[in-house]
Specification:
single chain; 2 domains; three-stranded antiparallel β-sheet; 2 helices
Length: 73
Amino acid sequence: MDFAAYVAKCQCGTLRLDQVKLCQDDLAVDDIRLDRLPQTTFRQTLSIVQERHRAFNWLIGWESVYSQVTIDT
């Protein structure tokens, strides 16, 4: 995916790339494109992202109980 081009065209809000690592215009972890990550690294990264997504949704008030917050957005 050309993530840089996606962000440039995104109309769902202002997105910035200044704090994101890119490799060949796609998101990267440890300088490796997401689609080329070892499975264990990908799963660990996905877990971290999902937990942060849940925490953000909780902080903005989706649910009062953290464990009841969904991440289906």
